[in-house]
Design goal:
With about 300 residues, this protein is an alpha+beta fold. Helix content is about 20%, strand content about 30%. Strand 8 (about 190-195) and strand 9 (about 200-210) form a beta hairpin.
Length: about 300
């Protein structure tokens, strides 16, 4: 899909939302290079985030009519916040979203062909001024909280436990989530899940449930190898109760997406997933912690334009 620039404009006008705290504050050193590279094809306004939640709040308040696109520079958490700030605007006022991966994980970037640290390649994609429409996940909770949106993945059980542990390991950089996930997995804590996929009710005593829009989670877990970001489907992965011995055999296979071949792993696709129980189970979307069960997760088919 060819992106059409604003009438009468020879250059793009972009809002760059930059998280200098990404990658344990190492991203701040990249800001001059990012601005210089983007200035070759765009007029750029800079919004530097000041802390957790700041990007979402400020993007929700900005007048997007002044811009041709919105760029999230940071990790998965930054992208999550920018996306939710963008979705605070009516559909007709939303702008295409671009990604400059300068964070630790950048799992969603993998589906754009970008590896962690590929910020120059990410800027080059934006400079091509072409977009594609991609699916967005919507999470609605029963407790009256406003819905939130995700591009990558939302999980419950082990993913939320690992997120809390990874916060204490950020100083190690990229491997933080992998180490935290392995440590929490070895505890073998399970949850009595009751969930529904496109009207089919299921129950499992499980380590976790992950609902994926794209293939990767964390830095390098190929959680949903069959996922496509524009197919209108969510990929569901559930790991049932298993022994520590079986877990040690299964865990390394997640890096290659071979875990779905194990009998302890349930994997399927659906347009809508509802998690009813256990009540109050914390949710982990796109490298963040937000909301809890009961919750309904739906796929918004090709709802967002992405620079790609």
């Amino acid at each position: 899909m060819q992106f059409v620039r604003c009438p009468g404009s020879a250059r793009l006008k972009l809002l760059l939302v930059f998280n200098p705290h990404a990658a344990n504050r190492r991203a701040a050193q990249l800001l001059p290079g990012v601005r210089e590279a983007m200035a070759r094809f765009a007029d750029v306004d800079l919004l530097q985030t000041r802390g957790p939640g700041d990007a979402e709040t400020r993007v929700a308040q900005v007048d997007l009519s002044d811009y041709d696109g919105l760029i999230a520079a940071g990790g998965d958490g930054t992208l999550f916040e920018v996306l939710n700030g963008l979705y605070a605007h009516p559909r007709e006022r939303r702008r295409p979203l671009g990604l400059v991966p300068v964070g630790t994980g950048n799992a969603f970037a993998r589906d754009l062909g970008l590896l962690p640290g590929d910020w120059k390649k990410g800027i080059a994609l934006i400079g091509r001024s072409t977009t594609r429409r991609m699916d967005v996940g919507r999470v609605e909770m029963d407790r009256g909280e406003p819905p939130f949106f995700f591009l990558n993945i939302v999980g419950a059980g082990l993913p939320a436990d690992a997120m809390k542990s990874a916060e204490r390991l950020k100083f190690v950089g990229g491997p933080a989530y992998s180490l935290a996930a392995f440590w929490r997995a070895m505890v073998l804590k399970t949850y009595p899940l009751s969930f529904e996929i496109d009207g089919k009710n299921l129950e499992q005593d499980a380590l976790f449930i992950e609902i994926s829009n794209t293939r990767y989670t964390g830095r390098s877990f190929l959680m949903a190898p069959a996922a496509r970001a524009d197919d209108g489907l969510l990929d569901v992965t559930v790991v049932r109760r298993l022994s520590r011995h079986r877990l040690l055999r299964l865990f390394p296979t997640i890096y290659r997406g071979r875990h779905v071949e194990h009998p302890e792993v349930f994997a399927c696709q659906g347009r809508s997933v509802r998690i009813d129980a256990p009540d109050g189970l914390l949710l982990a979307p796109d490298g963040e912690l937000r909301g809890c069960t009961p919750a309904t997760i739906t796929c918004l088919h090709r709802d967002l334009e992405i620079f790609a």
